[in-house]
Amino acid sequence: FGACRPGQTPALFGKCEDAKTSAFMTFYLYLPTNRVNPMLKNAHLSNLAGVLWYLHHDVVTHCPRSQWFDRIVRYVVTVKNPLKFYNATHRQFGSLEGQTPSDRPNGMVVGCQEHATAAEEYPLYPEPTVFSLPGGLYAGGECAAPDGTDNCTWRAYYAGEVKLDELSGIADDFLFCRNSQVEYNATTDVGKGTSFWNFRRNMSWSLHRMQFVKELFETKYPSYPADIGEPRCDSSSSMASA
After folding, report:
1. Which of 54, 121, 131, 169 matches a 20 to 30 Å C-alpha distance to 22?
2. Which residue blocks in 71-127 are alpha helix, DSSP H?
3. How many CB atoms lie within 10 A of CB 195?
4. 127 CB neighbour count, 10 Å cutoff
5. Distance of alpha carbon 146 from alpha carbon 20, whole angstroms
């Protein structure tokens, strides 16, 4: 996979620069869910920082968890957006939904947006990003070998999962909730019965959470590399104002 991020190419003196064309990119994305290997259709997946941001802000503050999420599923995702989209925008990614006038005429454009992190209410993670994968296997967009044609822009295949209980060290989530415990309380900034999600604004703790998840995947699925790089979201927007 090389030293450059997906979407970049090697330059002089060992540096990297943004690709000057629509790039063929492979990277991990993650989905919080309560299902085993769910079918993806018009799906929103996130990088590791992004999925932890979302869980931290919206899911683990409830007991039982919001939407009954119990796991993080990882995918190896390959993206190549249409060349005509790159030529029109000089960007690798479209808007989050891929539905703006500049996106849809250019095919099933994979989009992205960064979550906001500046305000105190938001968890602090490095470049927490959500990606939109338009269509699906039977609806255009997803295909076996993305080539940047209008209906063949992405592919995602299952690459393992970890349970949220494994992160928080919860042995029985029914008893955990019955005992009035919670993984994270946004008011106190700590959990009750677990410390994994403590301190949403502490970057050191957030980086530790990310590393823990990477190592857990590596332990459970040693045939996959721990890290294959991730692209920069260049759609110039964020999920919420800072």
Report:
1. 54
2. 83-89
3. 14
4. 15
5. 18
